[in-house]
Design brief:
0% strand; mainly alpha; 7 helices
């Protein structure tokens, strides 16, 4: 005869037991966003992975990365609004059934890189833009793809890590 499994009730440890239960639960649910934030900072932005040798730069590098990440998030909220996934663009077929509720850091970085490429393409005084006005029209119309002239110099001067 099988014995019934008795599940233990969930327990939240708090340092101030006088807090309202709703506030404790809200802080508990915010914890997931904090974990995602830390993963994005480490994996996508490389916080703590820069190769710096100066004794002054070693403690400053993670703080600089986190400040740049915060500036990116604040700029995204100011530009697109809070929890607006529309600027992510066209989603792959497998994501269309359940679209994201907010922009991911990968979307924000891709959007930032695209804007940097657009700015450099439109502001550079090279001959290619003068010879091919269709390229500039495509850039202004946001019709991008394989038409961008990506050079090694552009890659090295704008590398993220």
């Amino acid at each position: 005869m099988a014995t019934p499994c008795i599940a233990s009730p969930p327990i939240c440890l708090v340092s101030d037991p006088s807090l309202p239960v709703a506030q404790v639960l809200q802080a508990y649910f915010y914890r997931w966003e904090i974990e995602v934030d830390q993963k994005d900072e480490k994996d996508l932005l490389g916080v703590g992975q820069a190769q710096v040798w100066s004794e002054v730069a070693v403690p400053r590098q993670p703080a600089f990365h986190v400040a740049a990440f915060a500036a990116l998030l604040v700029a995204a909220v100011q530009a697109f609004g809070l929890n607006n996934p529309a600027p992510a663009g066209r989603l792959p077929l497998w994501r269309r059934r359940q679209p994201p509720r907010r922009l991911s850091v990968a979307h924000l970085l891709a959007h930032l890189r695209q804007e940097i490429e657009e700015y450099e393409t439109l502001s550079s005084p090279n001959r290619r833009r003068r010879q091919r006005p269709q390229f500039r029209n495509d850039a202004l119309g946001a019709h991008f793809g394989k038409k961008f002239p990506i050079t090694t110099r552009a890659l090295l001067s704008h590398a993220w890590t």
